[in-house]
Amino acid sequence: MKILKPASLHIFRYRKLLAEIKHKLEDSAAKLKGGLNTLNETRVQVANMQVVCQEKKEVVAVAKRECEEILVEIVQEKRIIDEQERQACFSLAYIFYIIKVRRKENLPKTYEKIN
Q: How far is CA 5 from CA 8, 11, 22, in A?
């Protein structure tokens, strides 16, 4: 075994410490590069998703307009149907009234006295 002189011992320890620090810095740099790569990939993915989102937003806007137009048509048709139903009910009530009046006119007078 070689006996180291005090100056050589300090240089050896310095080199060993320098190598450890260099290794830690290289590890940290590799982690930072990996993190930056991940961030760049994510940035690209987000940009792509924004494009897709914008396209879908336009499709949704068109569909929303179409739905609103259809809803307006449905409401208008419902109003027409409700009015027709109301008129049909009035007509039916009038028909029943006429039938009732005619029955009373055709009934024998004795029947009218009982009721």
A: 5, 10, 25
- Stated as kind and residue range, the H or E segment containing 36 is helix 6-106
pTM tops 0.85, yes or no: no
Q: Is position 102 within any domain?
A: no
51-70 CB burial, b ≥16 within 10 A, e <16: eeeeeeeeeeeeeeeeeeee
pLDDT band of 100, cuts 50, 70, 90: confident
Residue-level pLDDT at 4: 58
In which domain, by residue range, is 48 found? 6-79
The answer to whether residue 46 is domain-embedded is yes
